[in-house]
Description:
The chain is mainly alpha-helical and about 60 residues long. It is built from 2 helices and no strands. It has helices spanning about 1-30, 35-60.
Amino acid sequence: MQTIVTVLLALAMLGTLGVLFAGMFGLARGQDGARSNTLMRWRVWLQGIALALFVILLLMSRS
Length: 63
């Protein structure tokens, strides 16, 4: 179970990084604000999921 949570955490972190870079490159190219706002929402959700998985992983490792 701990391995599954670790893999999910890694995927959430990579997803967060991907969305962050997509937003940065789009901002540098001058894309519209609606797309930037959508990417920001995705980033926040993925960060929240990664943080929750990290807490779950910590709790699992304590027991």
